[in-house]
Amino acid sequence: xxxxxxNLLLAVILGLFQNTLWAADGAGLFKSRCNTCHMIDKxxxxxxxxxxxxxxxxxGEGENLYKWVQNSTELIGSGKSALAKEISTFSATAMPAQxxxxxxxxxxxxxxxxxxxxxENTTAVADTNSVVNPIKVTDYHSNxxxxxxxxxxxxxxxxxxxxxxGTLMTLMKSDYFKxxxxxxxxxxxxLILIITTGALLMSNNALALNYMRPGEGHKDGPWLxxxxxxLLAIIVIDVILLVVVLYLRHLFNQMLGxxxxxxxxxxxxxxxxxxxxxxxxxxxxxxxxxxxxxMEHEYDGIQELDNNLPPxxxxxxxxxxxxxxxxxxxxxxxxxxxxxxxxxxxxxxxAEKEVQAYLNKMAMNVDENSATLLTDPSDLSAGAGIFAAxxxxxxxxxxxxxxxxxxxxxxxxxxxxxxxxxxxVKNGTANGMPEHSSKFNPVQIQQVAxxxxxxxxxxxxxxQGSIIEK
Length: 470
What we know:
Layout: H1 2-16, H2 18-21, H3 26-34, H4 52-58, H5 62-70, H6 72-78, H7 82-87, H8 102-113, H9 140-172, H10 175-183, H11 185-208, E1 210-211, E2 224-225, H12 228-259, H13 273-282, E3 294-299, E4 302-305, H14 311-333, H15 340-361, H16 377-390, H17 392-395, E5 411-412, H18 418-427, H19 442-453, E6 467-468
Antiparallel strand pairs: 1-2, 3-4, 5-6
Helix pairs in contact: 1-11, 3-8, 4-5, 5-6, 9-12, 11-12, 16-19, 18-19
């Protein structure tokens, strides 16, 4: 009865704090789900997110905001939201559906509303060697595979617990074992607590998983979004179940030992196998035979034994010689395997293909050969935001130039075509213009380049360059 009360109390406590234990991390969700296309305080591929929740609430569409995040395409198609229709014109790329609960969406917007931008020294020249670390996106395909194997292991452990528990219950029905169980009652109670806690944690973990509802899934995507925290949780559960299985096995062996008849074992001389192994590995001469390998010379009463080299050392030496020949033939003569530089080059080519595939998937496969002049007000607005935050230190707010040249007159140093301006912003120049490919994605570079070409003429630095706009 006491154990039952403890279990009920534990269940109530875990139930009350379930949302706290598995609360969404707003910052982590933003970085893994939103940061690719959105910036908090600036327009990017998507519009800035700061103040978005207040805007939707003020327009009387607070509930539609959740539907927008979960499936924007469906909300636009329904025609029930004026804001959704307005935002859909910001970019040609549709926002993908997000498998997030309302609590997780609230956590994301709480992080956005409390975001404080870092202080930047706009007068400093950017470091051309700095590289922005890429955002690590959760690999849901790998996670779902690991999750399936862990789930199979969980089922196997549960079946093992049920079978062993049933066997133990059969043995416990006798009066003999009832008396024995009183001595291990405390351990049994602890076992029940472990099973109850594991079951509660398992239920909470199941609620934390993100199932894909109709219209939310991507092509070739997994049916269930398993986060890394979900994998850690189910691993913990499997460890708990394994401990329970081992404990039940221990109890079973104890009970089996009680009913087995005690047999008297005859003492058998034990052969010291360790000495045999030691003899094979070291080829040491027994102490009583050391006179056979005693060398003739003597130093201050000290004599030397002519021991052989340890066989394990000799075998290892021969193995290194064989390995050296195999290595030489494999890498230098036949060239079957690649040396480090060649292997590195191959890996870089594979990585470049993966990067290009990612850019194609995210509709960011824009470069200096395919860039086009953007005229949409939303794109120019995004470019203006990027220019104001990163370019005014050298080119002034109107583009009239200070450290850098005037961007509003009809003379150009590196070319006036959108492709030329894109290339200049992306790669930088030898005259002090830093590269921005490590700071902005291709779409953002195209936006700021288009904004530069849209600047009206402003009085500033004298014309520079020899390329004149026709």
